[in-house]
Design a protein that fits this description.
GO terms for molecular function: transmembrane transporter activity. The protein is mainly alpha-helical. It has two domains: 21-115, no CATH class; 126-410, ABC transporter involved in vitamin B12 uptake, BtuC (Orthogonal Bundle), CATH 1.10.3470. It has helices at 21-43, 66-85, 93-114, 125-150, 159-177, 180-204, 209-232, 236-239, 259-263, 268-286, 288-298, 300-305, 310-333, 347-357, 362-384, 391-409, and strands at residues 48-52, 61-65, 122-124, 248-249, 265-266.
Length: 426
């Protein structure tokens, strides 16, 4: 098995004519640039838009005139789009697209921050970064759970249920025991129980994996909702008052300007999430287990002929994925909130989108989760400064970002070849 290489299957290029994917995305970016330069520039005010490097309005800040900033950044986004329309080399696609999108967002923010009421025309960047990571945490854990499953050839649509069961188990057993560590272990077991059902029905009984995932999500909603009403609502003090993990400050690193207070004064879930991304990435691409996992996800028959126990590896990876997602669910109830019915609110499906957007890679999934977390945090910030944008549209922002990212920015991606295909040992 050590001599076996697992590589992406080559896909013959498709002749797209003049309107290649790069040019199509460039055209959209030109439209966004015009929107920023013309509309946002007209709506912005001459007040300074302040981006403070702290948690409030005090301290050092980057300041830009609202109108000039909105127009200038809009022009930068337009220029990035024009470069893509001109036939940008493929290796420059991602950097130019990223720069264009950042410029568009900054144009939008110059309008919003400069037009905010007096005393609110600033954006505290430490809070924005911290909030982005906090809101991205369940997405990071959920996307990692998806990576473990789908790299093994099992579609994991049950991330929502795994997160929800983890949140419920962490709250319930953490409350009964009075220990955050017991709650954390219970959350991992709760997520693993949902994964166990997925593994048994999808691997052993060959049930359609997508349908099974949806059924398990509904099962988790029903079970946790029923027990919430029977236990937690009737005696919240006993069953829904779990202790919380406190923030851990890392000396020296926490003093780094901007990033230090945001990243190195967090709770265990922040550090564990980032550590898991690193560990899973190294394990997946640098170890024998990772080679075998990718082999099973690409060509299980070939892996079987080389001595890999395909079904056993799939079982183990799916169970590990459930534990990871369960811990992600506990990031709600052991760090932030008390448990409520269906409190995950679709985050499992956004985590699935982050998995696809990140191209089934742990680091890609992390970046995608942060993108969606930023969209969520931005909606919260805009509500706090009384943005003229209706609150209903702000609530849609994370989901709209998900749709646009997966439908418009991902392009051609290829899931593991055996993903979703049951393996029957000959």
């Amino acid at each position: 098995m050590s001599t076996m290489a697992v590589e992406d299957v080559a896909v013959a290029p498709v002749d797209e004519g003049f309107w290649t994917r790069t040019r199509k995305v460039g055209l959209v970016l030109v439209g966004l640039g015009l929107l920023g330069a013309v509309l946002f520039g007209a709506l912005a005010t001459d007040q300074q838009a302040r981006f403070t490097l702290s948690e409030d309005s005090a301290g050092a800040a980057l300041e830009v005139n609202g109108t000039i900033g909105a127009i200038g950044f809009g022009i930068l986004a337009l220029a990035a789009g024009a470069a893509m329309l001109a036939g940008l080399p493929k290796r420059w696609f991602i950097p130019v697209l990223g720069a264009g999108l950042v410029a568009f967002v900054l144009s939008f923010l110059c309008w919003q921050v400069s037009a905010a009421p007096a005393g609110q025309n600033f954006m505290p960047m430490v809070n924005i970064i911290r909030g982005t990571f906090i809101l991205a945490l369940p997405l990071i854990f959920g996307a990692l759970a998806g990576v473990l499953c789908e790299r093994s050839g099992v579609v994991n649509v049950a991330i929502e249920g795994q997160l929800l069961m983890g949140a419920f188990s962490g709250a319930l057993f953490g409350s009964i025991s009075g220990s955050v560590w017991v709650g954390l272990v219970a959350a991992a077991i709760g997520g693993a129980l949902i994964s166990l059902l997925l593994a048994v029905f999808a691997i052993r009984y060959l049930v359609d994996q997508v349908v099974m995932g949806i059924v398990l999500n509904l099962l988790a909603v029903g079970v946790t909702g029923f027990l919430y009403e029977r236990l937690m609502q009737t005696d919240a003090q006993r069953y829904n008052s779990a202790p919380r993990f406190s923030n851990w400050e890392i000396p020296l690193l926490s003093d780094i300007p901007l990033l230090g207070p945001a990243l190195f004064r967090g709770n265990i879930f922040l550090y564990l999430g980032l550590l898991l991304v690193l560990v899973i990435h190294i394990a997946l691409f640098r170890t024998r287990w990772g080679l075998r996992t990718r082999a099973v996800g690409e060509h299980p028959t070939a892996a079987d002929t080389l001595g890999v126990r395909v079904l056993r590896l799939r079982y183990l990876n799916v169970l590990a994925a459930g534990m990871v997602a369960g811990i992600g669910g506990a990031s709600y109830t052991l760090a932030l909130y008390s448990f409520t019915k269906n409190m995950i609110g679709g985050k499992g499906f956004i985590a699935l989108a982050a998995l696809i957007f990140g191209r089934w890679s742990p680091t890609g999934a992390l970046l995608a989760a942060l993108f969606f977390g930023f969209a969520d945090q931005l909606a919260t910030y805009l509500s706090a400064i009384n943005s003229v944008i209706p609150s209903q549209f702000l609530a849609m922002l994370p989901y709209l970002a998900t749709i646009l990212a997966v439908a418009g920015l991902v392009g051609r991606v290829r899931a593991p070849a055996a993903d979703g295909k049951p393996y029957i040992k000959g």
